[in-house]
Amino acid sequence: MSTVRRGPLRPLLALLLAALLVFGVAACGSSDDDKGGADTAAAASGDGGSGAPEKITIAYQAIPNGDLVVKNQRWLEEAFPDTQIEWKLFDSGGTVNEAVLANSIDIGLAGSSPVARGLSTPIEYQVPWIHDVIGRAEALVVKDDIGSIEDLKGKKIATPLASTSHYSLLAALDRAGLSERDVDVIDAEPDDIYAAWTRGDIDGAYVWNPNLARIVADGGRVLISSEELAREGKTTYDLAVVTNSFADKYPDAVTTWVRAQDRAVRLIQDDPDAAARSIAAELNIEPADAKAQVADLIFVTAADQAGPEYLGGGVGRNLFATAAFNQRLGQIPSVFDEQRYLDAVTTRFVEAASK
User: Fold this and answer.
1) Does 7 have pLDDT greater than 60?
2) Which of 36, 38, 192, 340 is an S-S bond match for 188, by CB 3.0 to 4.6 Å?
3) Domains of the chain: total
4) Do 109 and 35 share a structural domain?
């Protein structure tokens, strides 16, 4: 088990330096033998988007959404019979950003706060898909003796640094007139957070399902959820990112990937029991628990994602506002003009997948 870390660690300055070094670092969990990204794309056959790549490397997370349905049902393997599909499990969006910079993935899942942070550096990716709007699936869960956000002062609260949960924790503290300096924020990945909770090492955590549900089942009490913060303008998403190099060389492959994701969303909406069985198998939980956790997320079809509320403008504005909030709280050194974030969000692939 990893050791919990007292934040702030993995500062965005390191991410910026890595970007300026032109992707000269190695990714978490990768090696020279299993690299995807531009190295694979450069060696692959096809041009102009008509050919399939030899390999697609996908960063996924243990989040109860359509990505796990696509993985479990092997829809990409069916769609690309001559392509190697490699799924790499990551703990949080911060490490997905690191993998993009290391050129070791083509497509990945990251929360809106990590994506906003990434786009505040020279990172080269775009957003072609919304996996989900987070809602109740992320929350601040605490011990029974903590009755309000103000009571967090001096308490040990764990969250993965640079994640949407970290962003939401900062937003919750800010709304109560507190800052990260008022709380002993511990940087840890979700599985380690649950282990720390069971040992009694922390007073609470801002984290997502399935570990949120595990902590609640173990006596934790939800103090505030991301759904409540969204009503105050702090909406968070789980987003897909695709490297610019892969999207430029293999647009048809990205459209096929989006079409598979859209199929998963429609399965969640039309047959939630079937979707829950796939997700439960990937998370090693009971289907009933998976179904309950899926219900805490909001899913949007490809056709609707193309509209102005989502990829057609709303998500880009959200990413800019998220970056500005992180800068105001000293989490990142600078932000670009809003157009940088708007341009990084594209409707191209959802529009093609909807035809």
Assistant:
1) no
2) 192
3) 2
4) yes
Residue pLDDT, tens place only, 241-258:
999 999 999 999 999 999
Query: Position of tokens 């709380």?
Result: 183
Task: Give the residue from 40, 39, 38, 36 showing the smallest Cα distance to 105.
Answer: 36
Give tens-digit pLDDT for 83-138. Answer: 999 999 999 999 999 999 999 999 999 999 999 999 999 999 999 999 999 999 99
The structure tokens listed for 278 are 């796939």
* Nearest by Cα to 229 from 153, 141, 167, 310: 167
Residue 333's contacts (CB-CB under 8 Å, 6 or more residues apart) are 12, 13, 16, 327
* Spatial contact of 345 and 125, defined as CB atoms under 8 Å apart: no
Residue 207 makes CB contacts below 8 A (sequence gap 6+) with: 138, 139, 141, 158, 159, 160, 165, 190, 193, 194, 215
- Spatial separation of the C-alpha atoms in residues 49 and 100, rounded to whole Å: 21
Q: For the chain, give the number of residues.
A: 355
What single letter denotes the amino acid at residue 238? D
Q: What CA–CA distance (Å, rounded) separates 71 from 89?
A: 11
**Distances in Å between the alpha carbon of 194 and those of 51, 138, 191, 200, 242?**
44, 14, 5, 10, 30
Residue 224: domain span: 136-230
Q: With 0.70 as the threshold, say if the pTM is over it.
A: yes
Tell me: do 130 and 141 sit in the same domain.
no
CA distance 164 to 160: 8
Run of H or E including 64: none
CATH code for position 292:
3.40.190.10
